[in-house]
Amino acid sequence: MRYYLRENTLFIRGSYRSLSTGVGGGISTVSTLLNHTVRPDWDGQEPLRELSVVTTGEGLPGEFFGLLTTVRMQHLCILQYDWVTVFISAGIHKGSSGTINIIVCSSQGMSDAALAGAIITATEAKSEALIGLGHPFYGTPSDAVIIASEGVVVHPSAGILTEVGHRIHAAVLFGVPEALRRHEGLVVRDAPSYFIFSRFGGDHWVEWLPKVCPYYPCHFKGQSCEFCYCPFYPCGDESLGEWVKSSSRNGPVWNCAGCTLLHQPGIADYLMQNPEASLRELKMRRRKKQNEA
Question: Do 78 and 14 belong together in one domain?
Answer without folding.
Answer: yes
